[in-house]
Design brief:
There is one protein chain. By secondary structure, this protein is an alpha+beta fold. Helices cover 29% and strands 36% of the residues. The protein has one domain.
Length: 72
């Protein structure tokens, strides 16, 4: 089975959890193959990794809104 038809989406049934003692962030993901749910996994990030990902996603969304002509 090739990996090019796999994707992950944030779980709609669970929320991200932060361990305040370690800074670890767990983001529950649903794993899909050809839009069929195949499993679940947690994306586990350090506090720094979560902050970096948050910034990257924010910039990507802002750029996408600017291209579409909508205010960011």
């Amino acid at each position: 089975m090739t990996t090019d038809r796999w994707h992950a989406s944030p779980s709609r049934t669970a929320s991200a959890i932060t361990d305040h003692s370690t800074g670890e962030v767990r983001v529950p993901l649903d794993l899909f193959h050809l839009d069929q749910l195949k499993g679940m996994a947690d994306l586990v990030l350090t506090r720094d990794e979560a902050a970096l990902l948050h910034g990257l996603l924010g910039r990507a969304l802002t750029a996408e809104l600017a291209i579409a002509g909508r205010p960011a």
